[in-house]
TrEMBL record:
<dbReference type="InterPro" id="IPR036249">
    <property type="entry name" value="Thioredoxin-like_sf"/>
</dbReference>
<feature type="region of interest" description="Disordered">
    <location>
        <begin position="179"/>
        <end position="199"/>
    </location>
</feature>
<protein>
    <submittedName>
        <fullName>RedB protein</fullName>
    </submittedName>
</protein>
Length: 199
């Protein structure tokens, strides 16, 4: 059997290279479009949370992992939401601080980004206790409770991990804040809250 010419070897190597790139791109796309674990819906404002509810005011809470790079997109969407509906709800971002890590571990770049959003209060969530109370399992999970303490929305505000742009979640939240209606829920795209991860 005749051995392939040098040009033939280049064609084979090129085909393998392109195949590898295609496989990698497909894997990344699949990962970015895979939502986090299904959260537990908490229908009424949870007992024991440190967050205060003010009479007559809806409350929006985002639960976030400070090392999840996907969450940067969720914060960008939150900034848009606050720009359009700011003042209609008290808003918090709670950053996980896993057990055994020192105070301040969670106060990095994402913390500073969240703190720069007008109308948002940023707090630590030691051991993820409040995330558990709100039923969140994935970074970027947003819950909105009405003035009556009943859940109006639970889900994500991006359409994929790290994707900035219009999303059904953000649109639903804007509608709920504008009309005091029910918003349902949407999948959450981000890192798991129970483990410190990078993106």
């Amino acid at each position: 059997m005749k051995a392939p010419s040098p040009r033939g070897w280049l064609r084979v190597a090129g085909a393998l290279w392109l195949g590898g790139i295609g496989t990698g791109v497909a894997a990344l796309a699949r990962y970015s479009l895979t939502p986090g674990a299904t959260p537990v819906t908490v229908a009424a404002w949870p007992e024991g949370t440190r967050l205060a509810r003010h009479a007559g005011r809806p409350v929006l809470v985002m639960l976030a992992h400070p090392k999840c790079t996907c969450t940067r997109a969720s914060l960008a969407e939150l900034a848009e939401l606050m720009a359009h509906g700011g003042g209609r709800a008290d808003a918090f971002v709670l950053f996980l601080r896993p057990e055994g890590l020192e105070d301040g571990w969670e106060q990095g770049d994402l913390w500073r980004t969240a703190a720069s959003i007008p109308g948002v209060t940023v707090l630590s969530d030691p051991e993820g206790l409040d995330a558990k109370r709100f039923g969140a399992t994935t970074s970027g999970h947003v819950v909105l409770y009405g003035a009556d303490g009943r859940l109006r929305f639970s889900g994500g505000i991006t359409v994929a991990r790290g994707h900035v742009g219009d999303s059904p979640g953000r649109e639903a939240l804007e509608r709920v804040l504008r009309e005091d209606s029910e918003g349902g829920g949407t999948p959450v795209y981000g890192c798991a809250l129970e483990e410190p991860r990078e993106g």
